[in-house]
Protein: ADP-ribosyl cyclase/cyclic ADP-ribose hydrolase
Organism: Rosa chinensis
Amino acid sequence: MALSTHRASSSRAWAEPPPQWNFDVFLSFRGEDTRTGFVSHLYRELQYRQVFKTFKDDRELEIGASISPELLRAIEQSHLAIVVLSPNYASSTWCLDELSKIIESMETGDKRILPVFFNVDPSDVRHQRSSFAEAFAKHEVKFSNDPEKVEKWREALRKVANLSGWDAKNYKCESELIEVIVKRVWEKVLPTITLSDSKEKFVGIEFILRQMGLLLAPEEKDVRFIGIWGMGGVGKTTLARLVFERISHHFEVAEFLVDVRKRPLIDLRKQVLSPHVSLVWNENEVTKFIGKFLSNKKVLVVVDDVDSCDLLEKVALDKSWFGDGSRIIVTTRDKRVLVENDIKLSVELVGLNVSDALELFSHKAFKKDQPEEGFLELSKSFVYYSKGLPLALKTLGSSLYQRKLEEWNSTSESLRRIPNPTIFDSLKLSYDALNDLQRKMFLDIAFFYKGVKKGRVNQLLEYCYGYNCLIEINVLIEKSLLTIDQNDNVGMHGLIEEMAWEIVRQDSREEPGLRSRLCHRKDIFLVFTENTGTDAIKGIRLCLPCLEEADSSWNFECFSRMTKLEFLEFDNLIISSVPKFLPDYLRILIWNWYPSKSLPASFQPSMLAVLEMQRSNLVRLWDGRQDLPNLKRMDLGESKNLKETPDFTGIPNLEELYLLNCDGLVKVHQSIAVHKKLKRLRLDRCKNVKSFPRKIEMDSLEHLNLWECSKVKIPEFGEGMKNLSFILARGTATEELPSSIEHLVGLTGLCIRDSKSLQSLPGTAILKLKSLEILNMRGCPKLKKSVENMWETVSEKPPALRRLSSMKRKRMGPTGLCKRKSPEHLCLSPTPRAFPSLSALCLNDCNLCVIPDDIGYCFPSLSYLTLAGNNFDSLPASIKCLSKLWHIDLGRCKRLEQLPDLPLNDYLDVYADDCDSLKMLSEPSQQGRFPKLMHFNLRAANCFRLIDNEGLNNGIFSMLRRLAAQGISPDFLHSFEYHYRKSFDIVSPGSKISDWFDTQSEGDSLTVELPPDRESCTSELMGIVFCVAFSGKKDPIALEAPRLAIRCFSTRIVTDHALPNHQIVIDQHLSKHTMGDHLWVFFIGRCQIQDTTSCSIRFSFRLYHGINNPIPCSYCVKSCGARLLYEQDLKNLLNGTTNIL
């Protein structure tokens, strides 16, 4: 049993039992001062709460010279002592003896004392002045023969006065002070509450109980409804019973209502009233008495296993029925019960983790924490089968207690054939609560759609059932029969899935051909090899993990008897025989590796909605026209022998057509050109298509993909194609982009890169594409003149520029627009405010020699700028006016000598790898220009001239000093970047780590000792600064890898023992061409080092290529250094009195 909330780490199975206190609070007070006033009010509030047991001596007179044994025991058996120090407190020897005993208990045990200074000054108590002086003057006379006793009392008062407590004069009224005291008591008492007095061991329960404690909020006086929901057998009743047993004695009325599904409503309501009201005979009287009798009482009611919204409404809906502080706990398998009754406070229970599950199973099977010798692997198999469900773990474990190994093996084998009846019957209750349609959908999902995206499942069910099924899917989720993972895939608990299989298996236990659904290999092979198919079968799914050739005895004639078959899916099954018949009743046909060259001539599937036959042997689907009025999706991807598409005239409702990688495809039927429902058309890498419509008028088309269709030209577009948003036409045979592209008013992306034949752009037409966000023209070498004309048009006609106000991104790759040896260079023409909404501009490898001086004014919204691989030697000063720029990539600009003055932003990523001529980062006069800088990331690998010109020290650390200034400000200290990200991160050439880093180590790891008093110095400690020296040289493996990265790991150390967790702190991507000695300087915030259990942290550094592969030895970390960074260090950086490098 566990909450769906992820736990940071696995907790122990159950806590070591804390000291058992008979009382939570002992009240020590002077009766004549406070008994009928402050103390009585405080005692009432403490008793009013749900968890506090308070001892208060109610005797008016102090009898005897010393306190009674009863009081001594009460003091010893109380967790907290609240000492109310009033003016006459010290005049009572009884009170002073109480206080001495309380102080003694505090010093010898773990009792806590909370003093309240009521109408007295704490300093008078500490120094025994005023009324305390008068009282002790009398005590010294009366006990002149026992001065040690008087001194003991004095010392007790001094000690209690030095403790943190409350001075009543600091509060407006007594009620405010009492509220503060009660909240503090709750904070102290809550961690000591034990789970239960039950002899049973409870596993994985601590975290959930803490969450329930937060929801119960006993310090609050409101009436609260709290839900516990989850699948059957997950432990909802167990949790509710534990909570009930722990807190029920603090309520005036407490009832646990079980079997609420079966019992009459009047019985349930009478149970809540009984035994308080016994003479209630009919439902009207019960309703009347509930509202009247309970409205002024603090009530605890648990309503267990509620399966319908109206039942809860009738049992306990109205909060006005219950008095202040009442709590109503509802357990249910159906989240909708909570939603419809407006119960917003709830916990969802899910299965135990593996270690907790093994422990719970062991308690039942062996009465021990771990399995006995020889039973570990079998125990693990039962734990795996149970999938963390407590009911299954308990049931199976108990059934195997004191049984022999042979019996364990027998039970394991039988579970593969027949589920345990106790588990099955419990889970099936949720299924039985569904209506007929929901049951069918649930079984369909269990057999055919588990692991599929939720939206896709809804779409496929809609094709089968004829309407949107999202509401039904959500109902199944709410009833804990389905789950949705973080990737939006539909799933279900393994035992729920098995329950679904067993329900269908009960159709015919011996003959699979008589069942409604088939998904198990053995059953499907039996049906097709023995030809036992019947019209009972509605769905078949066989998806093998890898390619496998079917037995030659497979007989497809059995399809002829499957007249009601709606769903058929085969994948990774190679079959030599060819089906001569397919059921016309099919709605979904998915048959990858389909063996035949065409579909059977007799196949007339008028209800077919999905046809998917990837990697098939199809040459054509059918001859002539086929009427498929319900077909919505066709996918024939990677069918290498497919020569032509069918006539689409008879498929008027087709929405998706996928023909990816059909190498043999030559002809796309001309009827596609005027299809009015098609939304997505993908012909990716159909390199041999020659026949494609010259003009398309597909009014619903949203996505057109002609990626690497090297013999196809982009067609003309009809005026009604307003829905087309994306065209991917990389590497086509297009020579001229059609002017009719201006009709595509909804186009947001146009990719025509690598179109080697493309010579011209319809400049005026492109300027009419108001919604265009992405334009990729990389690798179109014949476009030089056309692009020049377009820029001239843009420059000369400002009104036309305004039509491009929605353009978000312009991408031009290596177009050959400027040859390095040519005297003429392409320059971007000045275009003031040309693209006011452009946010990302990518002009990599365009041989640009000059960037327009007014670039900073052309693109006021630009945030992402990449100019890598160009030929300019400087950037215009106006770039600093790009007020939203946070990312700039200047890598491989070999002639660039100096970084420009950067914008005054609070976040900057600068990439300048392989800039061979780079000498300086910015003009010295511009250092410190970053008043808001809170993050700075610079990558300058292989820029070795930076060291020669000291540009690194002059530039980078002026920025660090500015970061230091921000580091002292509260805004930075509380910023996301400071706590969870790098505030600065720099890679640059260098080999020597400065002595400023006071912890240094040779090799790739070092240990940082944490200050023992770091909790008290957090206002000064900022974090840790690291400097890592690493080296690299040319390496073919690294050059072929998708990326190169250096990564920092941390391992916490407690008393010379390294904890097992090995966490990635941070990593930095590097240029794959990084060579020679480099330094990596970065900072982590103090939040990552505030774990008080660790006395030190070991940091290690590794270089990787690819994703997780260690780099070979040609790349290595030579040494590393670190320094705990305090505010004074930042001030020194700010004042320029410290250099890091």
